Amino acid sequence: MTRNDLIAMLREQTPACGPARDALIAGGDFLVWDGLVPANQHAGVFRSRMHHSLKRGHTIDGLADSVDILLRAGEEPLRTGSIDAVDRSSWFTIFLNSTATEVVACCGGRRP
Questions:
Q1: Which residues in 45-76 are b (16+ Cβ under 10 Å) and which e?
Q2: Positive or negative, the Cα torsion across 16, 18, 21, 25?
Q3: pLDDT > 80? residue 54
Q4: Whether this model's pTM surpasses 0.85
Q5: Model confidence pLDDT, tens digit, residues 68-103
Q6: What is the 3-state secondary structure (H, E, C) of the chain?
Q7: Which own/partner pairs from 52-61 qualify as long-range (CB within 8 Å, at least 24 positions apart)?
Q8: In 10 A of CB 79, how many CB atoms?
Q9: What is the CA 102 to chain-centroid distance, rounded?
């Protein structure tokens, strides 16, 4: 997958997709892992992260939307990836379909 491929796949799935796309356009690093994990397993992990971050008063853009999307996807196998802004001020987690041809969800934002 190329940078341009990933930029094109980041549409408006969640509110974090626009800033993640901007980070890529600005030259941020990205990585997509080969392993596949059922979407509902990701949902459980990221739901816990959401609760912990809210307790600390920190919000993560697109996290609630991503958890909802992952729960609806059920057992669908997904790839995960990450995007880091050039200056490392922002980070994003991306969830892609099994063939890495579509972004299913995205969450992240400014580092605390």
A1: ebbeebeeeeeeeeebbbbbbbbebbeebeeb
A2: negative
A3: no
A4: yes
A5: 999 999 999 999 999 999 999 999 999 999 999 999
A6: CCHHHHHHHCCCCCCCHHHHHHHHHCCCEEEECCCCEEHHHHHHHHHHHHHHHHHCCCCCECHHHHHHHHHHHCCCEEEEEEEECCCCCEEEEEEECCCCCCEEEEEEEECC
A7: 56/112, 58/112, 59/109, 60/16, 60/107, 60/108, 60/109, 61/14, 61/15, 61/16, 61/19, 61/107, 61/108, 61/109
A8: 19
A9: 12
Residue type, 38: P
Which residue's entry shows tokens 């987690």? Answer: 93
Tell the residue number behind the tokens 């809210």, with chain if given. 54
- Percent above pLDDT 90 for the chain: 78
